Amino acid sequence: MAVGEAHGGLPVPSGAGEAIRAWRARRRVSQLDLALRTGVSTKHISFIETGRSTPTRDMITRLAEQLDIPLRDRNKLLLLNGYAPAYPERDLDDPELESVRGALHQVLRGHEPYPAALVDRVWNLVDANESLALFTVDVSAELLEGPVNVLRLSLHPDGMAPRIDNLPEWRAHVLDRLRRQIDATDDPELRDLHSELRTYPCVTSGHDMSAMDRRSIAVPLRYRSERGRLTFVSTTAVFGTPLDVTVSELAVEAFFPADAATMRALAGGVTGAGEPAFGDPV
């Protein structure tokens, strides 16, 4: 099988074996390590990657698990070898995902009065709690039209950027995090998003632009709101053992107060925020 143009420093695979080799290279795993993890010979791994041996459905699944390949791409590997996809991809409003929707609703609402958002694999907003409206004051209406991309919203000059006091620091954090996600997934939509975000000017608010405090435990978001200057740290929560493509690509981004002043400012909730106009909630 022929190998296509170079993409991101790795060959573009044209078959299941080449795709497995590309993922192995991306994960920086040797054939020997992969063989030991899966309990097969290095020779067999080599034969699969070069197309001399056709992997079974079970072998593709085992290799994909050991290489931590996203479920969406595991299905693609199976299809490349003529097998049916192993993982369903349901809409979030599917009746079978009712328990998932309930859990997500509980997490988002339970995080009040602090902002929290549910995003998909390319950082499009799926749902949010009421407090996320704290970040949409003065934001251009165009940026709030679906699908709303939360990274675009945060760095766009017509979005949150003018209110972020430590914009250079926050921008570097966002771009670095996105780059690491691209390295892990090789997702072309994320590549396009990264290229777009890099073109945005790094406007400053004229406030605290000092270098990051090395005593900090995480990169903070320093945001000027109608309630004063707020400082947040964020966490990301995902489902631990998803078996559905849609569920595997969901993440809750939750913001926590990083100081007592922010905690006091939001103690009474986000008055007048209302339900964010980001489309239908889950």
In brief, what are we looking at here?
With 282 residues, the chain is of the alpha+beta class.
Description:
The protein is built from eleven helices and seven strands. With 282 residues, the chain is of the alpha+beta class. The chain folds into two domains: 75 residues, 434 Repressor (Amino-terminal Domain); 171 residues, Beta-Lactamase (2-Layer Sandwich), CATH 3.30.450. Strands 4-3-7-6-5 form a five-stranded antiparallel beta sheet. A two-stranded antiparallel sheet has the order 1-2. The longest helix has 19 residues.
SSE arrangement:
Elements: E1 6-7, E2 10-11, H1 16-26, H2 31-38, H3 42-50, H4 57-66, H5 71-80, H6 98-110, E3 116-119, E4 125-128, H7 150-155, H8 167-185, H9 188-198, E5 221-225, E6 228-237, H10 245-248, E7 251-257, H11 260-265
Antiparallel strand pairs: 1-2, 3-4, 3-7, 5-6, 6-7
Helix pairs in contact: 1-3, 2-3, 8-9
GO molecular function: DNA binding
InterPro entries: Cro/C1-type_HTH, Lambda_DNA-bd_dom_sf, MLTR_LBD
Protein name: Helix-turn-helix transcriptional regulator
